[in-house]
Amino acid sequence: MRHCGNVTRIAALGLASALGAAFAQPTSSQLDLLARRLADLATRDAAVEEVVGAPATFTPVLLAWTTNPPDGVRASDLDVGLAEAFDRMKTEAAVPFLIRVISIKRIGVTLAPWIKGPSNVEYEYPAAEALVRIGPPAAAAVIKAAQGPMTQEERLLAIFVVGQTDGVPGSRGVPSSREFLTRALAQANDERVWAENGLAQLKEKEEKGRAKAK
């Protein structure tokens, strides 16, 4: 009889726990408020802490918001909050979203991070920071995405992410980290050489024009 009583108590505790979890699920109005808090710079940090405290509850919701943000919330502001949350939780499922918004800025003004250091770049670009934090799986996806069209800023950030992450091997049609960075360096060198050549020719033509004008 004692054994049966223990089983009953254990079952009751399990049921209570399940019911508690069910009642703890946020309501739609609470989720709308969370989205607004994530989008607001003044409340974002506290909202991210709330999400990080219950990843199983909030991760599916946040992933859904990457393609279907709630009404009344500015998507670009929400994207920053989502990137910060995915950064803290190292959410691999968010990698496609993070690549899509890789150039989104944490605040509206630029802090000239490229002339400073990696921590400054990560601060200005929260999606890039999250990709670095997620690590090699994100770097591999970034390399693959960089084989397609990207803006100059996006490509620079892709190079940054791959360079700040442990090396990943190549796969069919996709270069390894070393190959990707080597090609980027070669292209940059080619651009520098021909930019210098063009500037030299412009200078020569301008000097000839001034000489004729005398």
Structural notes for this entry:
It is a single chain. With 214 residues, this protein is mainly alpha-helical. The chain has two domains: 28-89; 92-214, no CATH class. It has eleven helices and no strands. It has helices spanning 2-24, 28-39, 44-53, 55-65, 75-89, 95-100, 118-124, 126-134, 136-145, 152-163, 177-213. α2 crosses α5, α3 crosses α5 and α8 runs parallel beside α10 (152-163). The radius of gyration is 25 Å and the shape is elongated. Residues 1-5 and 7-23 have low confidence and may be disordered.
**What is the tally of helical segments?**
11
Instruction: Please report which band the strand proportion falls in: under 5%, 5-15%, 15-25%, 25-35%, 35-45% or over 45%.
Output: under 5%
Rounded Rg: 25 Å
Order of helices and strands: HHHHHHHHHHH
Residue windows where pLDDT falls under 50 for at least 5 positions: 1-5, 7-23
What topology emerges from the helices and strands here?
Layout: H1 2-24, H2 28-39, H3 44-53, H4 55-65, H5 75-89, H6 95-100, H7 118-124, H8 126-134, H9 136-145, H10 152-163, H11 177-213
Helix pairs in contact: 2-3, 2-5, 3-5, 5-8, 7-8, 8-10, 9-10
List keywords for this structure.
single chain, 214 residues, 11 helices, 0% strand, disordered N terminus
What's this, in brief?
This protein is an all-alpha fold and 214 residues long.
